[in-house]
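Before relying on records like the one below, remember that each one covers exactly one chain. Contacts with other chains, cofactors or solvent are not represented anywhere in the record.
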Amino acid sequence: MTPTLPRITHPQAVPVTGVDAHLPALSLDRLTSQALRQRFASPDRQAWQPEIPGDGRRFSEREPAAASVLVPLVERDDGLHVLLTRRTDHLRDHAGQISFPGGRAEAHDADAVATALRETEEEVGLAADLVDVLGTLPGYTTITSYLVTPVVALVQPTFTVRPDTFEVAEVFEVPLQFLMTPAHHRRHEFEYLGQPRRFLSMPWHGVAADGQPREYFIWGATAAMIRNLYGFLRG
């Protein structure tokens, strides 16, 4: 019998077992739109392997279903920012969590990029004609048995956010340089059914739409895919 999937409702309470400050931060010159284009066009990109291919042991017997997320990079005056969403609290899955826009592939989607673009427009109202896809990273297998393809793209800064209020509580941005600095990457570990489970977190202290300070606790699969982007750009 497949065990019940553990729900981590307060990931902030899981002990921090380490911080990756020993790894180098990526410099700003490697985080420009031109530098990212060159990296995704480089001949060796197909040989690159992600540090974290998935959450670990899956809690489902079914084969992983295809899904995609968009990793939207918005050019601002101080450099590229990553657009993220905070899920609404009433959702059955991933309630309140920080995530990239995206979701499960549909039969009519041409490919992983089409899935990411469709889901992003549905969730946050970002039209595909404002998105310039740079490329994809290797798939990430989640504990819930999804094989998620991260689609990395540049987004024109003139977009207007129109979130689906049923799914998305908030849309916000984090500087890419902050996320590409491993001193902000924290490691957590806990035990479930006698097995160790691990995840990364990257807490961002920003300002919410109401003007009040808020901690955005980026963790789990979203943090792991950000870490894989760091590894890819570091080369």
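The first helix runs from residue 33 to 41.
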